[in-house]
Amino acid sequence: MAATSLSLAGFKGMRSDILVVLRKEQPCTIKTLADQFGLTQNALRRHLTELVDAGLVAYRREIRGQGAPVFAYSLSEAGEALFPRAYIDPLVDALESLRAREGTEAVIQLFRRRWDALAEEAKPRLAALPLQERAQLLAELLAAEGYMSEAIAGAGDATTIRHHNCAMREIALRFPEVCSAEAEFIEAVLDAPVERRTHLKDGCRACEYGATERVPLRTRMPAPETMR
Question: What is the pTM for the complete model shown?
Fold first, then answer.
């Protein structure tokens, strides 16, 4: 069976854990992975060798600091394909046809309607919660949509939403404009200003959004009565 026909569910135990960590933090050295899992480097190397032989992990030599070169491991294209993708090639073709007929804005509106529907369903459950709790529930919602999302509490009222996997990566590469609809969705659900910091399609390790709680408008002081 070709590696590209597999799914992450077909891997159990340490191999599955390694694939998930590489998806989040690649490239990683054997030492980094061994330290994270509490294994010896030799034990970790055996698992990596199996994944390399399966065509799911690749490595390259890197020079880090003054020491000898090290091997840095990352997911191969087949390894990336193990992670959920919400859209497939026929849909990409359909979107290309839509763009040819009606323009890029029509494609964006298609995704915006989908995100708007999700936002309308989620917002009533989140309205009374503080920002960091809203962000946690949002991350869980996005995980159900195929993203590897997490919410990271920051200082004060700040929070970060980070996607380690894009459920529509192929769409975003062909239609980068649809990412604006995703950002609008996150801002609408959180009801907070959102700033995109990093982007998977630009070669970053994750899509990352920063959010801060809205500052409520100060109650206006009543104008003093006119002196008589």
Answer: 0.61
- Cβ-proximal residues to 197 (8 Å cutoff; 6+ apart), any chain: 208, 209, 210
DSSP annotation string for 162-224: EESS-TTHHHHHH-GGGHHHHHHHHHHHHTS-EEEEE-GGGT-SSEEEEE-PPPPPPPPPPPP
Cα separation, 166 vs 145, whole angstroms: 10
Q: What is the pLDDT of residue 83?
A: 75
- In the chain, CATH 1.10.10.10 sits at 3-80
37-87 per-position pLDDT tens digit: 898 999 888 899 989 988 889 888 877 666 677 888 988 888 887 776 655
Q: Which CATH class is domain 3-80?
A: mainly alpha
89-211: CATH homologous superfamily?
H-NOX domain (3.90.1520.10)
Compute and round to an integer the Cα radius of gyration of the chain: 22
- Number of C-beta neighbours around residue 18 at 10 A: 24
pLDDT at 210: 94
Residues of the chain short of pLDDT 70, as ranges, are 1-12, 64-67, 84-89, 216-228
